Amino acid sequence: MDPLPLQGITVVAVEQAVAAPFATRQLADLGARVVKVERIDGGDFARGYDTAARGLASHFVWCNRGKESIALDLKDPRGLDVVRRLVAGADVFVQNLAQGAAARLGLDAATLCAAHPRLVAVDVSGYGASGPYAGKRAYDMLVQCEAGLVSVTGTPDEPVKAGIPAADIAAGMYAFSGVLAALVRRGTTGRGGPVEVSMLEALAEWMGHPLHHTLHGGTAPERTGLAHAVIAPYDAYPTGDGGRVLLSVQNDREWRRLAEQVLGKPELGSDPAFATNAARVANRARTDELVGAALGTVGADVAVARLEAAGIACARLRDLAELAEHPQLAARERWREVGSPVGPLRALLPPITLPGGDEARMGEVPALGQHTDALLRAVGMTDAETAALRRDGVAA
Predict the structure, then answer these.
(1) How many CA atoms lie within 13 A of 221 on its CB side?
(2) Of 94, 239, 240, residue with least CA distance to 175
(3) For the segment 314-360, what is each residue's pLDDT rounded down to a tens digit?
(4) Which end of the chain is more exposed for a tag (fewer CB within 10 A), N or C?
(5) Cis peptide before 165, with omega less than 30 degrees from 0?
């Protein structure tokens, strides 16, 4: 079996919330050793978001498995010195402190890379280090609004935010891929270097389709709920047993098959009011009425079977409890258990699969400061020095 690709890589992260922790969790899953530096007064504030995961915060459980936690007061020079010692032995450093805070501590990417040429150092921010928004506070929903995501999500009457922290996830994934790219470059040049990722720029990239639609077509896509703005039929339809099935017709050949094999109205395949996607979009209400009438007389199982037999892409509209029991995830054995301070918790394997190699390393979710003593010893602190740091509230 091949080893995990990041085995032997050490990451130090001064991180909080979701964006940076999500990035470093990907690195941990792929074999990197990730040292998470947390505040002594409660740690990463995501630890306090909720208690839904058997007493632990669901965001924290999701983003922080497989890490070692050290709790330090970085306002004290002794705490900051410990971080600098950790960084001296690291391959990667990641931070998403408030804008300007890392620079004041000397932990910004430019400063660290100047001192450690092989280090890959990542600054994750809300809006970037320059420009009029550089100092603006940035949380996921705020960035969703600034990036226009909310404007295209929802119903014609009401815009809504995405149900997941899309801006955080986008920034986290670009930070993750930026680290991988910088490590590859280091393998050929011997030098690491800074990596910059902002939540706004990451999510703006994800807005590519509606952005180009607006820039080059002159109008923004309409908000259409579960329906597709420019394709019909492409929506969720109620079934006779109370379920909902979403189907997508991508071209006119598929529409003809749907009309004949599912709707039982083959003449609709050539009817000028429905024969082309443009016509169906123009007659969306009638198109949806025809599809809804056909699916509303049968149960969800039968509806899906008929659609699949006709070669029409479809899906069930599942809730999260149904996702947790999804037959495809079960058949592919994607569920594992990870340790935590409250015992084992179910978690999905990460979506990057490396056949022929070791399985992703899904380590335990750490308690605050669980590894403080071991890490202090690792950077050369004596027991007496460690005791003094704890006594003075510099370490916990």
Answers:
(1) 23
(2) 94
(3) 999 999 999 999 999 999 999 999 999 999 999 999 999 999 989 99
(4) N
(5) no
Contact 235, 288 (CB under 8 A): yes
Query: β-strands 244-248, 234-238: how paired?
Result: antiparallel
Reported as half-sphere exposure (CB side, CA atoms, 13 A), residue 89 has a value of 12
Torsion angle defined by CA atoms of residues 387, 389, 392 and 395, in that order, rounded to the nearest 10 degrees:
-110
CA distances from 69 to 184, 225, 337 (A): 27, 42, 20
Q: Whole-number mean pLDDT of the chain?
A: 96
CB 372 within 8 A of CB 70: yes
pLDDT digits (tens, 9 = 90+) for 278-319: 999 999 999 999 999 999 999 999 999 999 999 999 999 999
Owner of token pair 């040292």: 35
Tokens of 8: 């032997």
Which tens digits make up the pLDDT trace of 211-258?
Answer: 998 999 888 888 888 888 889 999 999 999 999 999 999 999 999 999
275 has a pLDDT exceeding 90:
yes
- Among 12, 34, 25, 10, residue whose Cα is nearest residue 82: 12
Return the pLDDT at 299. 96
Structure tokens of 94?
Answer: 């990641």
Tokens of residue 264, six digits: 């039982």
Please spell the DSSP secondary structure of 309-335, one letter per residue.
Answer: HTT-EEEE---HHHHHT-HHHHHTT-E
Q: Is 108 a catalytic residue?
A: no
Strands (E), 39-138: 67-71, 92-95, 120-125
Contacts (Cβ under 8 Å, ≥6 apart) of 163: none
Phi and psi (nearest 5°) for 202? -65, -45
Whole-angstrom distance, CA of residue 148 vs CA of residue 206: 10
**What type of residue is 155?**
T
From 168, 271, 319, 358, active-site residue: 168
In whole angstroms, how far apart are CA 76 and each of 81, 172, 382, 389?
Answer: 9, 29, 18, 10
